[in-house]
Specification:
Length: 154
């Protein structure tokens, strides 16, 4: 009877080891499909974009520099970042090829909700301060008015 109990406990431990191995395989499979495979797909797309770069395309580099490709050489690209300013980058530094449509992020006409013009019916605060400054007596400020031909020195 003691031998049967011993045999039953040893067989259940080996089943536990099999469950542990199966659990590790399932966890690795989950990591593969959730993390490793999508990262490989992103890398593959990035390499395809970098290999397909041709002169005239607008690109964004990994450093955030925007420009237009002017020349493509073996492993390098020449990007014009401003009129007459060309920079040489590694081809793998190109992160994205931008569409030909104007980019909303680069518009100078963005309205940030700040009105630069004051309403016409109200006087500007600077004009009111200037009117009061002319009325103030310079002797009250502790400074004597400058005499003709003499300059106030500080």
């Amino acid at each position: 009877m003691g031998n049967m109990l011993l045999a039953a406990t040893s067989s259940s431990k080996s089943g536990g080891g099999l469950q542990l191995i199966l659990l590790l395989v399932v966890i690795f499979g989950i990591f593969y499909f959730l993390m490793i495979r999508p990262q490989r797909n992103r890398q593959r797309r990035t390499v395809q974009v970098q290999d397909a770069v041709v002169p005239g395309q607008r690109v964004r580099t990994t450093a955030g520099m925007y420009g237009t490709v002017t020349a493509v050489e073996d492993g390098d690209v020449v990007i014009e970042v401003a009129p007459g300013v060309e920079v040489r980058y590694l081809k793998r530094a190109i992160m994205d090829v931008l569409s030909d449509a104007p980019d909303a992020d680069l518009d100078d006409d963005v309205d940030y909700g700040v009105d630069s013009e004051e309403p016409a019916d109200e006087p500007a605060a600077d004009d009111a301060d200037a009117d009061h400054a002319e009325e103030a007596d310079p002797a009250q400020d502790g400074q004597a008015p400058a005499q003709d031909g003499q300059a106030a020195e500080k």
